Amino acid sequence: MAAPARRRHPAQPPVRPELLGTGGGEPRAPDQPSPADQQHTVATALKLGGDHFDVGQRPEEKHVVLADPEGNEFCVKGN
């Protein structure tokens, strides 16, 4: 029997693969994004209405925490 299709909440926008760095297909975060990839992803998210979000991360941590326009937090991994 096939697994049921995943459903998203009607108010949830579709996943934008370009923000996840996959270029299409099944969304997934890349394992080892380059610093340039991370900077590009952060810049794109900010341009689309995201904002930096402070969860107590330290400067030496290699991820950037952002929030989408609705306030949902997400991390952009760094290398």
Structural description of this entry:
The chain is of the alpha+beta class and 79 residues long. It has a domain at 30-76. It has 2 helices and 3 strands. Strand 2 and strand 3 (73-76) form a beta hairpin. The longest helix has 13 residues, at 35-47. It is globular and about 30 Å long. It starts with 16 loop residues before the first helix and ends with a strand. The model has no long low-confidence stretch (mean pLDDT 75).
In short, what is this structure?
By secondary structure, this protein is of the alpha+beta class.
Radius of gyration: 14 Å
| SS-based class | alpha+beta
Number of helices: 2
Order of helices and strands: HHEEE
Q: Could you name the ranges where pLDDT drops below 50 across 5 or more consecutive residues? A: none
Q: Can you tell me the overall shape?
A: globular
Largest sheet: 3 strands, antiparallel
Mean pLDDT across every amino acid position: 75
What is the CA–CA distance across the termini? Answer: 40 Å
Helix content: 10-25%
Strand-residue proportion:
5-15%
Count the strands? 3
Strand order in the sheet with the most strands: 1-2-3
